[in-house]
Each structure stands twice: as C-alpha cells, then as structure tokens.
Amino acid sequence: MKADSAAAADPACTEGLLPEAARGGPVSHALSRVARLHRIAAGKLLKGLGLYPGQEHLMMHLWDSGAVRQSDLIRAMDLDPSTVTKMLQRLEQTGHVRRRPDPDDRRAVLVEATDGSCTLLSNVRAAWASLEEHTLVGLDPAERTELARLLGKVEENLCQETANCPERS
Fold first, then answer.
1. Nearest to 12, CA basis, from 31, 38, 37, 40
2. pTM over 0.85, yes/no
C-alpha cells in the first residue's frame, strides 16, 4: 500500500511512506524510529566501555546520588526489579558498583559506585558527548535548543498521560 499524499508530504515522515497503521501518528512513528536508532548508536558506544544499554543510566544515578537503597534505585530506574538486579550483578562483577547491608536497616541493601568507576564516568561522559554530536550533526545551536525544548514538552505530555514519571536521570 502507498502512503497518501498528505502523509508523504509530512516532514515527520522522513521516508515519505508510513505503514498503514501509523498514518494517524506520523510524529509518534518518527519518534519511535529515532529512539530505536539512538539506542542502537548508544549501545555501540557503550559496548566499547563494557556496558550494556541502560547500565549507564544506573551509573549516572549512582554517581549523582551516592549510596542509595537498592529498592530506591529500582523505583528511580522504573525497571523490573530483576532487570536492575541483573544490571547490578554485572556492574559489581566489573568493579563499578558495590552492594552492602544498610547500617540503619539490615534487611535493606545499599548500592554505590566504587572509586574505581571514576574512569568509567569519564568514558561515559565522552561517549555521551560523541553520541550527542553524532545525533545532532547538521543542527545549528538554535535548532538544538529548540529540539531539546520540544522534546521536554513531549516528555511532560507523556508523563501526564501515563501518570508515571520516573526520576530524570
């Protein structure tokens, strides 16, 4: 099936064709494609650092927050507990995080970035800067600012719609 002329002329439809089911949401379709490609590009950069996609967000949270209860980290990441546990196991094996009993509540576990993760922090900063440049090549500073502003509005809309806005990290 061919896309109708309105869909083909829509700037959000970069390929000129939309799947039939996506014709009512060309921006949502474009956003999902961009998010997928961005995650793939990030994954390639992170692989070189020994990280899986998502682990950098967990580390960013720990670097900014210091030691946190594992249960709080799970809530902040807005992921399934088993996913966070697996991430922590991998990061612990590589020496980037440490888990220990909470001295105030022996049933709780504290998670913190290790001193040894400082090199990883520098490498993640560099990877994200590289990803930013690769992602935004061809956009001038005003366009970059406008894109960030518009994406912030989209994020706020989605937070209100889902009534579940995880902590920004």
1. 31
2. no
**Would you state the structure tokens that stand for residue 127, as one six-digit string?**
């990877």
Residues 70 and 29: their CA atoms lie apart, in Å, by: 35
pLDDT in tens, 60-86: 999 999 999 999 999 999 899 999 999
Q: What residues contact residue 19 under an 8 Å CB cut-off, 6+ apart?
A: 29
Please name the residues in contact with 13: beta carbons below 8 A apart, sequence gap of 6 or more: 3, 7, 26, 29, 30
Are 76 and 167 within 8 A, CB to CB?
yes
- Classify burial at 23, counting beta carbons within 10 Å of its beta carbon; exposed 0-12, middle 13-18, buried 19 or more: middle
What count of residues does the chain have?
A: 169
User: What pLDDT does 18 receive?
Assistant: 84
* Residue 15: per-residue pLDDT: 53
